[in-house]
Amino acid sequence: MEENNRLGLLLGLGLGILVGAGTAILLAPATGKETREFLSKKTFDPIRSKLTGLREELRVNIADFVDDVKTKGAEVGQDAQQKGSELWQKGKVLAKQTLNETN
């Protein structure tokens, strides 16, 4: 008796799956190709959009970083030039003092 119930359940389940699949095919609003395109757009467009936004944000951050490096580099170069000039002047003064002391 229990075996008949299982067989009936399996047959009912199989028949339900076939009827459901057939109904879905007959009532589907779009072709398979259209459905795949829809699912693809629904899945990949948000990802593509997010990646585009991240790429733009990264581009801006890199440009800001490059500008900062250029600015800091120019400041360091000016400081080095100024200190080099100061040391040159001190060296000239020391050289004159040394020459005066030896004479």
Question: What would your notes on this structure say?
Answer:
With about 100 residues, the protein is an all-alpha fold. It folds into 2 domains: about 30 residues; about 70 residues. Helix content is about 95%, strand content about 0%. It has 2 helices and no strands. The radius of gyration is 40 Å and the shape is rod-shaped. The protein starts with a helix and ends with a helix. The mean pLDDT is about 85.
What attributes characterize this protein structure?
single chain, 2 domains, mainly alpha, 103 residues, 2 helices, rod-shaped
Mean pLDDT: 87
Portion in strands? under 5%
Number of strands: 0
State the shape.
Answer: rod-shaped
Distance between the termini: 130 Å
Q: Helicity level, as a percent range?
A: over 70%
Count of distinct structural domains = 2
